[in-house]
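Re: the request from the purification team.
They wanted to know what the chain is likely to look like in 3D before they choose a buffer screen. I agreed to run a prediction and write the result into the notebook, where they can find it.
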Amino acid sequence: MSSIEINYIHKSYEGFKLEVDSLRFNSGEIIGVIGPNGAGKSTLLNILFNLEKPDKAEFRLFGTNFEVNRKMLLNNIGYVTDETSVFEDRSIYWNEKFFSSFYDNWNSNMFYDLMSKFSLDSDKKINELSKGMRIKAHIIFALSQQPQLLILDEPTSGIDPIDRSQVLKLLKEYVSEKTSRTLIISSHISEDLDQIADILLFMKDGKVLEHDTLRNLKKRYAGVSKISDLIDKLYESK
């Protein structure tokens, strides 16, 4: 089953044009999104979560048009970025109470289990946390929402290697628990994608130049055993 069906998404800025056509993401997949700065990765993800409006688009999430059933879709999509929308001047505890009343599938037990796992203090205000701790808090909020589609834009930036590995393991387990779940993760840290991704989406200059399983890509680009090598090959060939 396709969790995302894109017929086309087009968006233009001064000096930049995003043109994504005929793209499908299936339930149960973990998709790694890579590409140089300015490739259009964040713009594409923002449009999927309705943070940016496309110039023109035709796409469906879980078989539903976003504008037709916004509340249902927002209940089923989690999004983590550096600018994830939480109340920065309020405590983690206060934020949890607020979001638990907002999302239909919110799991408070999961929330506090993960808080303990990552040694986060619920009495702390979000703006009192270090960057790494803040990102971990954002991921906990997103997972506790129990979304079917989880979108993460550079989620491990600023987290130390041990915590990064722990976060990636947690994300992989979350997707594997239910076949209906899909994870899209954009990261410039190729080692992270080596650990977690089974599909790779390569973007450059606003276009998708590759979208395939890692296994198929490694077969097509000879001598490649890890994503960092594959990225080099993609840059050379594209």
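For the purification team: The first strand starts at residue 2 and ends at 13.
Please add any questions underneath this entry.
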